[in-house]
Amino acid sequence: MDGILPLWKEKGMTSFDCVYKVRKLLKTKKVGHSGTLDPEVDGVLPICIGKATKVVENLHEANKVYQGEITLGFSTETEDAHGEIVASSPIEYPFSIPEIDEKMQSFIGEITQIPPMYSAVKVNGKRLYEYARAGEEVERPIRKAMIYDFRRISEPVYNEESKTQSWKFEVSCSKGTYVRTLSVDLGRALGVEAHMSQLTRVKSGPFQTDDCITLEDLNRLAQKDKAQEVLKPVDLVFKDYPRMDLTQDEFIRFKNGALLLQSEFPQIESPTACYYEGQLVSIYAPHPIKKGLLKPIKML
Hints:
Layout: E1 3-9, H1 15-26, E2 31-33, E3 42-49, H2 56-61, E4 64-72, E5 74-76, E6 85-88, H3 97-105, E7 109-113, E8 122-123, E9 126-127, H4 128-133, E10 143-152, E11 157-159, E12 164-173, H5 179-190, E13 194-204, E14 207-208, H6 215-223, E15 243-245, H7 248-254, E16 260-261, E17 272-276, E18 279-286, E19 293-299
Parallel strand pairs: 3-13, 15-17
Antiparallel strand pairs: 1-3, 2-3, 4-12, 4-13, 5-6, 7-10, 8-9, 10-12, 11-12, 13-14, 16-19, 17-18, 18-19
């Protein structure tokens, strides 16, 4: 069984829980997920099965889209709604829509972030959440991330009783972006405490919400031996790459991953998906060091 399962991860499960359950349902060990989602975050989690595990790294690198909610008025130790409150700044006068939108727009482009203490980033061989649980402070590395779009998708709601203000947002971002931290930093830019009060991943690489099935759906299909029907082909991951269709003679050369002269295939100027008889064979690109040569960056 080979292919990519666009799974809808439900809240309360870790990404590894999903991998474990898929292994059991499909009775196969070669399974890997394509990007961790926190237990309290639901959404799109592509899972690679069989030969598709070769593209796990590509899906890790792919851009993601999230929808969530930001709440101004207090911050938490985990930067989301599930941690203890560590600081508060009651919102006496709600921010206007132009103020909010202007600050959100200011985050578009390359940003730097300090990962939250409750995250899986490793420092000196230990994950940050291990230090946090032990009550230890440690210097955290500064990370770069790219924000392609960050916008409000609902009217801001002011709660006079709790002195908080909340609204829904959508963000399109690169891998490694901490949306929790983005929410906290937006609050800081507005001059108040903030946290991310809800989050859902709605797109991961080429896969969107409508492509996904639940573990319950997969279980029903597996019992009828129909699980293969919902697996997506690996070449979807490379659908935006330039395509080259190989002749039989070219296929013989490309299938073995040989170094090739770029002068023979001048159309390969960037990573290119190479097909033979409708099947993806490899991804070739200009050699990063040896000028004039092409090398395979993925053999499929």
